[in-house]
Design a protein that fits this description.
about 90 residues; alpha+beta; five-stranded antiparallel sheet; 2 helices
Amino acid sequence: MSDSTVRCWLVERDVDTRNTVTMVYATTDGSRYQQRQRSSVALRTGSAVTAAVDVPEEDLSPVSDEETRERYASEAQRTAEQYDPDEEI
């Protein structure tokens, strides 16, 4: 992880009716996040979903409400405690 990237942990994963998987990675304080979308086919054939990713600071969005920030912080901390950053989950 360089100075221009931030380690973020998987806090949310959701599948919609089109079999698109939305994953949210957030900082351990829950203040910033990055949302990624992949098709279910890409998940099976592409690179693995890992517990953490290093995200360029400019690619992170601020979390706008306190309830979501607290939930992201709690989930990010739990994921960080239970998994290695490059572990598939």
